[in-house]
Structures are given as structure tokens and as C-alpha cells.
Design brief:
The chain is an all-alpha fold. It has one domain: Orthogonal Bundle (ABC transporter involved in vitamin B12 uptake, BtuC), CATH 1.10.3470. 71% of the residues lie in helices and 1% in strands. It has 16 helices and 2 strands. The chain has a two-stranded antiparallel ribbon with strand order 1-2. The longest helix has 27 residues. The two termini are 27 Å apart. The relative contact order is 0.17.
Length: 352
């Protein structure tokens, strides 16, 4: 039954998002909010891989989001839209439905390669060096982009709205919503399979005791680099989606505030829990929207709510548990191979 789990999830998401958009049930604001939720889920689960499962402490995740945002935006505008910087598009409109997801992947790859500048020097040592270096990289990214006038400098880069209009002109569908939920399902699926694999268990072993993991022949330095690149690459994909949602990119959008919001969602949901990351990303995004009428005071109310949560639930909403732990029947669809073997080994309940 489990092999149908992913197909079932994709089908449910399609029925709940795409078809209502076609029927006009969702207005533009709801579609905007759904895309933001999907982007936040990708960012939260990707950072949870680094901070939760691997036990490191990255505080500059927005920098890798920004690298993916700029890379994907420059690529799509160059290929698909008419722009003052790049001129006429290189590809016909009919290829936009193929070029756009490939550009998102390219943005993720660039972000993953950029993460090597952080992971290679920081993982030579133990401790909080990753936090210091990622914080510095967040400042470096903002400063470098602000001084490149060819892509707008501090004013930012625009033109992604034309890309989404090109895709809509080919087939009238909410393409950004479709690609966002596709990327969200893919990100959760990849990280879940990674952390439950043999390699992923090595990542968890590093978190629990790095010296013991090394004694058990785990190549800790290589594994840290791989996990960090995976998390940053997915953040780059999220950045590409975020840029096309807003229609422009600005260096300030991917600075300390954005990194802090991602950290908050990770710790709110629970370290080492994918289910908690998804729940917190959805809940926190909706909470920020509900508090929007408060204006600047929502940045006071939100931290107060988080302080109360940390006082009464310091491990987060889910702790280190998953929904399959609370609802065992979900394991046949979304459980790991180890969980399914345990369930299959249990004796069937005796008949009355």
C-alpha cells in the first residue's frame, strides 16, 4: 500500500489546490498565501535537516535562499521574458513549461555549490563555527549583491512577473502554485528518505555523538558536507519560487530577518521532526497573516507567543516525533521501511 502514498498525497494536493484555482474558488490572495506556505515548508524542512537531524547550527539560511532566487530569476528572465537587461527572450513561449522547473533546479544547484564555501572550512572543526560562518555569509551575500549594478544593486532585479505570464499564456493554469506544491512534496519526500536511509542514520549519529560516529567508521566530514549541500540546495529552490511569486528580488529580502523566521519555524515545530516542520510552517505563516492588521506590533505579539510556547513546550510542537508515531495507521502509506517491518512483525489481534 505504501507505494501509493506519494501518488495519493500528490492527488490530494492537486484536488485541494489546482482544481479549485481553475474553478475560481481560490482568489489571488489565497493562491499567494498557499505559495508562501509551500515555500516556508521547503525552507523549514531543509534547515531542519541541518539543525535538527545533523545537530549543527546554521543561522544564515536566507543567504542560500537568496542565491537560488537570483540564479533562477536571472535564468528565467534571460530565457523566457523580454527585459531591459537581457533583451528579447531566447526560447519560445512553448518551452516555458519545461524551462521554468529546470531553472528552479539550476538555482538549487547553484545554492548547493555556493554552500561549499561554507561547509568546507566550517566542518574542519567542531562547535559553533558553522553559526558564525553562515551569519558572515549572510552579510557577504547582501553586500555583494548590493554592489552589482547590472542586476539592480540595492534596488533589486525585476521581470519575473513576465515569466509567469508567459507560462499562463501557454496553458491557463496556476503554474506557480503547481510547481510550488510539486517542489514541496519533492522536498519532504527527499529529506524523509534521506534521514531514514543508512546514510541518513549516519547524520543522526553525528548529532548524538560525533566521536562515536567516527569510531563506527562514519565519514563525518563528508556526510556533513552532503547534508549541508542538500539542505542549502532545497533552500535555493524555495528562493526561486519566492522570487517569482513576488515578481522581483531584493538583497534585503534574504537577510537576517528571513533567516530568523526560518529558525523560528524549525524550533517551533520540533528539532528532528519533518511533521513538526510542516505543521509549524503552515501555522506560523497563517499566524503572521492573521496578525497583519496589527502592523508593526505583530513583530511584538509573535515573539511573545513563541516565548509562551518555549516555556510550556520547549521541545516544540512535535518534539522529535512524527505523525506516524501518533497515528500508526499512517505508516503503511508514509512510514519508513523499518517501521513497516516492525508493523508486519507484530501479531494480528486475536479474533473474539
Amino acid at each position: 500500500m505504501r507505494r501509493y502514498g506519494l501518488s495519493l498525497l500528490v492527488g490530494v494536493l492537486f484536488l485541494l489546490t489546482v482544481i479549485p484555482s481553475w474553478l475560481g474558488v481560490y482568489n489571488s490572495y489565497i493562491q499567494f498565501l498557499l505559495v508562501v506556505i509551500g515555500v516556508n515548508i521547503i525552507l523549514t524542512v531543509s534547515l531542519n535537516l541541518i539543525n535538527g537531524y545533523m545537530g549543527e547550527f546554521s543561522v544564515g539560511h536566507a543567504a542560500f535562499m537568496g542565491v537560488g532566487a537570483y540564479s533562477a530569476s536571472l535564468l528565467t528572465v534571460w530565457l523566457l521574458a523580454e527585459d531591459n537587461v537581457f533583451g528579447a527572450p531566447l526560447l519560445p513561449a512553448g518551452l516555458s513549461l519545461i524551462a521554468f522547473p529546470l531553472a528552479l533546479v539550476a538555482g538549487g544547484i547553484v545554492a548547493a555549490l555556493f554552500s561549499l564555501l561554507v561547509s568546507i572550512p566550517s566542518f574542519r572543526t567542531r562547535g559553533d563555527y558553522l553559526a558564525i560562518i553562515t551569519l558572515a555569509v549572510n552579510f557577504i551575500f547582501k553586500s555583494v549583491i548590493e554592489n552589482i549594478e547590472a542586476i539592480g544593486g540595492p534596488r533589486g532585479f525585476m521581470g519575473m512577473g513576465g515569466v509567469t505570464r508567459v507560462m499562463t499564456g501557454v496553458v491557463n493554469a496556476p503554474w506557480l502554485l503547481i510547481w510550488t506544491f510539486g517542489a514541496t512534496v519533492f522536498s519532504v519526500y527527499v529529506i524523509r528518505n534521506f534521514v531514514t536511509s543508512t546514510v541518513g542514520k549516519g547524520v543522526v549519529a553525528i548529532r548524538d555523538d560525533e566521536i562515536a560516529a567516527e569510531l563506527m567508521t562514519v565519514n563525518t566530514r563528508w556526510l556533513k558536507v552532503v547534508a549541508f549541500m542538500l539542505g542549502c540546495g532545497l533552500a535555493g529552490v524555495a528562493g526561486g519560487l519566492h522570487a517569482h511569486l513576488l515578481g522581483f528580488v531584493n538583497p534585503s529580502s534574504y537577510f537576517i530577518l528571513q533567516s530568523t523566521l526560518i529558525l523560528v519555524m524549525v524550533y517551533l515545530g520540533g528539532m528532528g521532526s519533518l511533521s513538526g516542520s510542516v505543521i509549524s510552517a503552515i501555522g506560523f505563516t497563517i499566524l503572521l497573516e492573521l496578525l497583519r492588521p496589527l502592523g508593526v506590533y505583530r513583530w511584538v505579539a509573535t515573539p511573545l507567543l513563541l516565548i509562551l510556547l518555549m516555556l510550556f513546550r520547549p521541545s516544540g510542537i512535535m518534539g522529535d516525533r512524527e505523525l506516524t508515531d501518533l497515528f500508526p495507521k499512517l505508516r503503511k502509506y508514509f512510514g519508513s521501511a523499518e517501521e513497516r517491518l516492525i508493523d508486519d512483525a507484530r501479531p494480528a489481534p486475536a479474533a473474539d
